[in-house]
Design brief:
337 residues; alpha/beta; Spore Coat Polysaccharide Biosynthesis Protein SpsA, Chain A; 10-stranded mixed sheet; 14 helices; 10 strands
């Protein structure tokens, strides 16, 4: 069937699982999707030539009425496979369920309700638990957000698009696609995931959608965001990661409708992020300086002016942490005497 002739089912949620080399997590992933309380779902699972036994595990789910299993003959990469999932799925809403994550049984139901609360909402996402390889909870993504985000999103809320862009400019406040429901119309209006990014393709998509759509937030942690050594971000070299940060964020600084003060603050923050990379005991961070400097000069030369305040902010932060640690040690020693 031609893509333009495909029938989209109103209210249906397409859960797209791009599977690659995470056999150890697949049972938890699939069982958590099948257990969803929201009835009208389809689970589109696409294995991208996994070298482990992922396909053997997925075959056990192949006959489930809600599962559509596709085995690729050529490796295409996560972005290509996820976009394929958009193209073959039939739901009004789409969620990219990363194959190493899992979720609570009411997550889809809650996200759909948040999406349907406003026609202007293009994305609905929820708070996530950070879990290790054995599902032990390490924390949650909300506590590490900025103070203004935590104040704004202390309860369920619709974030207007301009405010959403400001939050996104500070950090990727939607850190895990598995917690994020999209209105399919967003892809028609702003395109699919971009292969121009390896690490920031989701962040880039959020910015594009927030040009015209609001974002709904569910303050309850319903998703489990897996932390391990084989995530895309953890296996991508810092040289690539920070080039993408500069390209994306400095591009947004110049395209968003920001005040002069907001633009200054954003540039300082991007330079601060660079300082986080540089001021670590790693040879690679220093070796990357000439390359990243060229990137900044290409994407937004004006940001160089904010290099000193950005780095100074990081130095002061490191100093405050060191001072606090020393004071705690001295206090502990004093109580032991």
């Amino acid at each position: 069937m031609d893509k333009t002739d495909k029938i989209i089912v109103p209210g249906r949620v397409s859960l797209v699982v791009a599977s690659y080399n995470h056999a150890g997590f697949l049972n938890r992933r699939m069982d958590s999707l099948i257990a969803q309380t929201y009835e009208d779902i389809e689970i589109v699972v696409i294995d991208d030539c996994s070298p482990d036994n992922s396909v053997d595990i997925l075959r056990d789910y192949e006959d489930h009425p809600k599962v559509n299993l596709i085995i690729r003959k050529e490796n295409g990469g996560w972005v290509t496979v996820s976009n394929q999932g958009i193209d073959v799925s039939t739901g009004e809403y789409v969620l990219f369920a990363n194959c190493d994550d899992s979720c609570g049984p009411t997550m889809v139901e809650r996200l759909v309700a948040a999406m349907q609360s406003s026609e202007k909402t293009g994305i609905a996402f929820c708070r996530s638990y950070m879990v290790d390889e054995n599902d032990a909870v390490l924390g949650d993504d909300f506590t590490v957000r900025s103070a203004d985000f935590r104040a704004y999103c202390a309860a369920d809320v619709v974030i207007p698009k301009d405010q959403a862009n400001r939050f996104l400019l500070h950090s990727c406040v939607i850190p895990n696609l598995s917690a994020c429901l999209f209105r399919r119309q967003c892809f028609e209006d702003h395109g699919n995931l971009s292969a121009e990014y390896r690490v920031c393709c989701d962040w880039d998509l959020f910015f594009r959608i927030a040009q015209t759509y609001d974002i709904s937030y569910v303050a309850t942690a319903l998703n489990n965001f897996r932390q391990h050594r084989k995530t895309i971000r953890s296996v991508t070299k810092d040289k690539v990661v920070y080039e993408e940060y500069f390209r994306l964020l400095l591009g947004q600084v110049n395209s968003l409708n920001l005040s002069a003060r907001e633009r200054m603050s954003a540039r300082t923050h991007v330079m601060y992020l660079w300082a986080v990379h540089v001021l670590v005991p790693s040879r690679n961070s220093w070796v990357n300086i000439p390359y990243h400097l060229r990137c900044v000069l290409i994407y937004d030369p004006a940001s160089i002016v904010f290099l000193i305040p950005g780095f100074l902010k990081r130095v002061l932060e490191i100093g405050c942490k060191a001072t606090g640690k020393m004071l705690r040690i001295l206090k502990r020693e004093a109580t032991q005497q």
